[in-house]
Amino acid sequence: MNRQNNHHELIVSGIHLELTPSLKTFVREKAERLFRHEEEIVRIRVDLESDPKEGVETRFKAKGHIIIHGPDMNAVVEANECHKAVSLLMDKLDRMLGRRAQLHKVKRNHPHAVDLDVELPKAV
Questions:
Q1: From CA 95, how far away is CA 103, in angstroms rounded?
Q2: Are strands 60-68 and 41-50 parallel, antiparallel or unpaired?
Q3: Which of 32, 90, 98, 118 is such that its CA lies 20 to 30 A from the CA of 12?
Q4: Contact 50, 60 (CB under 8 A)
Q5: Is the pTM of this model over 0.90?
Q6: Cα–Cα nearest to 65, from 82, 48, 52
Q7: Is 72 exposed, middle or buried (0-12, 13-18, 19+ CB in 10 A)?
């Protein structure tokens, strides 16, 4: 099943940070990898936050929220540079989606028996 015209929603927002067009493009390019891996993604929200009062190593924080059919996924990454934080966030979300797909695959290939408390009627 090929979905060529499937438009996914990507929301990028900045908290105490000016979002430049190049930064938005960078986030969009990195998020395309997630959309290619999982077709059930409805929306990805990325919040980029800058806190000058924090230490140099944790100055930039990237928060990701994936709305998907099933439980939503959240991740937070801190780094010393905004582009690095976005890359680390997308890697983390990619690993989470991969683990989710692996768990669904294992569950699908290894069904378990269900015990019923009632006795079923016999076929005639």
A1: 12
A2: antiparallel
A3: 98
A4: yes
A5: no
A6: 48
A7: exposed
CB contact at 8 A, 16 and 51: yes
Q: Tokens 């990701």 map to which residue?
A: 64
pLDDT in tens, the chain (124 residues): 344 445 678 999 999 988 999 999 999 999 988 888 777 888 999 999 998 887 777 789 999 999 988 889 999 999 999 999 999 999 999 999 988 888 877 766 666 676 777 777 787 7
Residue 25's SS3 state is helix
Strands 73-79 and 41-50, by their bridges, are unpaired
Domain ranges of the chain: 9-109
